[in-house]
Specification:
Blueprint lengths: L2 H14 L1 H4 L1 H7 L7 E6 L6 H4 L7 E6 L15 H12 L4 E7 L3 H8 L11 H7 L3 H10 L5 H19 L3 H9 L3 E8 L4 E6 L4 E4 L1
Length: 211
């Protein structure tokens, strides 16, 4: 059975249940959106922010990519998808909070730590490698802290990636200005797939604490 058939069946269940129960909400959303938070997370199929945070339609503006990374601010012309989403969320929707959520068993972070896709061609990992190279300094730091690449090292890498993204977010002038004025708050989080538990970053202490 093509998976499209399952998607259509799921859509029909949605129409009969969630959409019907939230009909008034969907009518409001037809007039526009006003989410209060932007979630930047990984594209991994196991870590859907809407499911993890039990969010209703229109509550969160979500952007997902490999390893849930925010790139540094750049003004060169080109296809800056994540930067465009950040710009839209912050300057147009005026969200009050941004959360960067990393997760356990992250393939993108593992690639950054091991160099799995280094020196590959397009279609073999080339684009993945280029993307996670923004974690090069963090991956070296993690490797220096661990004698072997075990579970602890991979978790460390995933959490360091969140810190890198937060630092990169603050290179965007209109994010930094809003954070300094108190109009925007930045958060870091890590979701453990194996445990089903969420950890929030305490930036002052530099560690992640179980919610």
């Amino acid at each position: 059975m093509p998976y499209l058939t399952q998607l259509i069946e799921g859509y029909r269940r949605f129409r009969e249940t969630d959409w019907a129960h939230e009909r008034e909400r969907w009518s409001e959303l037809a007039e526009g959106q006003s989410p209060r938070v932007m979630i930047l997370s990984c594209a991994d199929s196991r870590v859907d922010p809407a499911q993890i945070f039990d969010a209703k339609p229109g509550e969160m503006f979500v952007v997902r990519n490999i390893a849930g990374l925010a790139p540094p601010y750049e003004t060169s012309r080109g296809y800056h998808g994540v930067s465009a989403a950040l710009e839209f969320a912050v300057t147009q929707l005026q969200v009050g909070e941004i959360m960067v959520m990393g997760h356990g068993l992250c393939g993108g972070c593992a690639a950054a730590l091991t160099g799995k896709f280094d020196d590959t061609e397009p279609g073999e990992g080339h684009f993945i490698s280029d993307w996670v190279h923004m974690l090069d300094h963090a991956s070296k730091t993690v490797r220096d802290r661990h004698d072997k690449l075990d579970t602890a090292a991979y978790t460390d890498m995933e959490q360091e990636a969140v810190k890198v993204s937060l630092a990169n977010l603050r290179t965007f002038p209109w994010i930094a200005e809003r954070e300094q004025s108190g109009d925007l708050k930045l958060h870091g989080a890590h979701f453990s797939v194996a445990e089903g538990q969420l950890y929030i970053l305490d930036e002052a202490e530099g560690d992640f604490r179980l919610v």
